[in-house]
Amino acid sequence: MTDVVTPPTSPVSRERSKEIKRLSVISTARQVRLLSRAELTELTGLSPATLTPLVRDLIAEGYLIERGPGASRAGRPRAMLEFNPRAELVAAVSLEPSRISCEIADSDGAVVAHRAVRLTGDIVDTICRSVPELAGDGLPALRGVAIAAPGVISGGAVRLAPSVGLIEGRPIGESVQRALGVPVVVDNDVNLMAAGEHAAGAGMDVADLLLLHVADGIGAGLVLDGQVRRGARGAAGEVGFLPLDPAGRGHDGIGPFEARWSENAIAERVVALAPGRRPDSPVRALVALAATDPRAAGYLDEVLHAWSRLIVSCVCVIDPGRVLLSGAAADLDDAAVDRLQGLVTAAVPSTTEVRRAVLGDRAVLHGAVSYALSAAAAGLPTLLPAP
Amino acid sequence: MTDVVTPPTSPVSRERSKEIKRLSVISTARQVRLLSRAELTELTGLSPATLTPLVRDLIAEGYLIERGPGASRAGRPRAMLEFNPRAELVAAVSLEPSRISCEIADSDGAVVAHRAVRLTGDIVDTICRSVPELAGDGLPALRGVAIAAPGVISGGAVRLAPSVGLIEGRPIGESVQRALGVPVVVDNDVNLMAAGEHAAGAGMDVADLLLLHVADGIGAGLVLDGQVRRGARGAAGEVGFLPLDPAGRGHDGIGPFEARWSENAIAERVVALAPGRRPDSPVRALVALAATDPRAAGYLDEVLHAWSRLIVSCVCVIDPGRVLLSGAAADLDDAAVDRLQGLVTAAVPSTTEVRRAVLGDRAVLHGAVSYALSAAAAGLPTLLPAP
DNA sequence: ACACTTCCTTCCTACGGCGAACGAATTAAA
DNA sequence: TTTAATTCGTTCGCCGTAGGAAGGAAGTGT
């Protein structure tokens, strides 16, 4: 566990093919939750004889729990096996400007423990101390760590990236990985949200989607063919820089589009329309205002037009099929979403659904879970027969 | 070969793992071209004992050719094995408005035979007759067929898609696949070009790229993480529909952007600037004119600005790292490409290279070769250890 | 000519997958 | 209640493949 980086033997198979079967059983069980060995034979294609010892191992390791016999029409009843989500834990670490928040979740995305730590010393140290503490005696079940950082991760513009060390995702990830001995993924928070909605939210049923996140800036997360795509330098989804608005002027690190149409920019206009304190959700406030104030309605329509041009641009480039509105954009009401859908449909060659994201704050967590679980299974894509 | 769709046995391995080793040896040999068994042990991780019979088989099947002994510093000289590109043939079929052109190529992309057939009867029939004829006695080595069709393939807008039957890629592909018994891929010509440049052209050294093809319309091909990405409905890269130009008006099947900045549109302006016949290459003509005529120089700059906005849009969404100019855009001279590069760099958060595609007409062919070869290896992604 | 090095092959063993037979646990029928 | 029928799960044993070890092959250097 400490040294041997490259096991000099085991080139292709034998040990490997065993692992493949293990993983195929685990992932099947994770999906179905409660099943019998007989169902496993059908779903994985493995023979019963192969499954018997394998399932025995998995029960011993806590992945599966033997439940009572299930219903049977005729013949011996199936002995049901339940997947134990607690057998695999995942840590999701979110880097925020002055603190880090850390959550331990099981493979369902259910939070087992969480804590926020003020950022004092070295980030890597803090993470490597907090995660084991928080995991407690579940530490051996830890399968991966996902670290969410704001801004562009590897290279690219340094946008919203707080202070030192965070810009380079690699060093942090590698250090933590060495210290904790489990796979670590570092990514943009928006990318994690996209992964989360894809794994457990409004994108579960599709392989391609675009998540548009409107906050202080505007960013997009991209899922194509079932995977988050980051582009060559990790700057995919930097849609705030789109040259859609001749009037928009970007400045260091802020793109021309997001300078005019981000949540901040909208908040300023909303305050001008309805003087007072800046509302918590400028978009929701604007939608409410628009019902009575024609000027607000006009401005809302401007916003929707701007966002629709943004969406149309993305759709023309990658054809995601579905666009999820996240952050401030998720505060739109049904009528406004419909309006946006209409604007997009009119301008785009391919049919595209526009809807709200559903996970909200928990999207990052679910994304982290899905990253960490797939990192554990990395390198072993399915060789199974289609059922 | 005719019936058995799902082999009821063979769930995961045994037969499979043997095939994996075969393919790993073949693909290694394809890259290295001339190597010994000893090098194969290093590169594939397979033991010499495993390789001996495997290599024997491959020699018998014609994949490898035994050459004389290689140089040796000390000890027994290595018996060199040469990869035989002719062992795997590929057919590339290009559907054009009134004819189909068909090429047989080896796995280097070297054309072994080609022919153009006027389209008379059924397309599928024509293909299924032409390919075996053209392949001749090389037919058993045929590993795949790639069919390039203009326009959007599965669903999406029907753009440039000639007449009947072509719109739906699936039926044609499946029919041909059934008839010829080899994997068939049907795709957009621009996607194939992108795959070609990625496999054998200006994108060999990168995993992500965007190919911008300017012709009658404007389309882009997208390679992300080493694969062509088509989006949910196959309409990825329909960048002619980008809402970048308030003055652009699209009409049925033509996007607003390409309506103003495609090769056709440019040709009209060039004819206006220099009355006469429409030049073969309007862009090259424009570049030449711009050297002397200030109005032409101004218009060229407009075109470059427009294209740069297009590129910037794509880059913001997917961050390809490299953009290849194809079709009419490849007719720009060095100065114009530099200018374009400058415009892009100024507007984009991530560093992006802009350069010309290098394969020209042969891009589609190379793309077809790469598709067909990877279709043959499909479902068996690398499980090999990193070297 | 001899040792030495490197490459390739053959022999042999160990291990895992899966077919087949068998025991187990229930329902339906006699 | 006994018997048959049915479906599940397990144990046994054959087979095939992988890869270690040892040995032959074909060179180089002294």
TrEMBL record, chains A, B:
Family assignment from sequence similarity: Belongs to the ROK (NagC/XylR) family.
Name recorded for this polypeptide: Sugar kinase of the NBD/HSP70 family, may contain an N-terminal HTH domain
This protein's record includes keyword Kinase: yes
Keyword Iron recorded: no
UniProt keyword annotations, A-Z: Kinase, Transferase
Superkingdom classification of source: Bacteria
Pfam family, one: ROK
Native organism: Micromonospora matsumotoense
InterPro entries tied to this protein: ATPase_NBD, ROK, WH-like_DNA-bd_sf, WH_DNA-bd_sf
SUPFAM superfamilies linked to this entry: Actin-like ATPase domain, Winged helix' DNA-binding domain
Taxon lineage: Bacteria, Bacillati, Actinomycetota, Actinomycetes, Micromonosporales
Molecular function via GO: kinase activity
